[in-house]
Design goal:
Blueprint: H1 3-14, H2 20-30, H3 43-54, H4 61-70, H5 80-105, H6 127-165
Length: 166
């Protein structure tokens, strides 16, 4: 048979578009001894289909299978429900105890004294004094931000130098 015709049938076969007659043509072609060398790799597949047709089960197989299915095996039933509740209860108690312990040990985080500036605004007696304290606090914040901004600019400058070196 022509290689192109068989190749076209194989393409249809892989896309599940072949009819039963076309599949029979493929099976007959691949079950013969004279096959195009470019199609030899597909021969075992179609030969497998023919070999599997010859396989059959022994007499009484179905009866033996049903008898094995219907037999009740000798097994001991273990009640997991009671074990599950015991383990779940123990885990819940442990969780509650651990939570209570950690809540007792918990101390709210205190601001570190190192480098911290604390300004008390509550003791201002008039609006002008409060304004002056707020202005002083904002100046401190501004100074710290400018210091961080300068450090960032220096780091970026170093990175730019490194990129130019590459």
């Amino acid at each position: 048979m022509d290689y192109n015709k068989i190749q076209a049938l194989l393409d249809k076969y892989w896309e599940a578009q072949t009819s039963i007659e076309e599949e029979k043509i493929l099976k007959n072609y691949f079950n013969q001894s004279d096959i195009d060398t470019r199609l030899k790799e597909f021969q075992p597949l179609f030969q497998h289909f023919e070999l599997e047709k010859e396989v059959s089960v022994s007499d009484g197989f179905e009866d033996r299978l049903w008898s094995q299915i219907s037999e009740k095996p000798d097994t001991k039933v273990i009640q997991l429900k009671s074990w599950y509740y015991r383990i779940a209860s123990a885990a819940a108690i442990l969780l509650i105890c651990c939570t209570a312990y950690f809540l007792q040990q918990y101390e709210p985080m205190q601001p570190s004294k190192k480098g911290a500036t604390v300004i008390v605004l509550d003791d201002a007696e008039n609006a002008e004094e409060a304004y002056a304290k707020v202005k002083a606090a904002l100046m401190i914040v501004s100074a710290k931000m400018n210091k961080g901004n300068q450090a960032t600019k220096q780091s970026i400058g170093k990175l730019n130098v490194l990129q130019k070196i590459k």
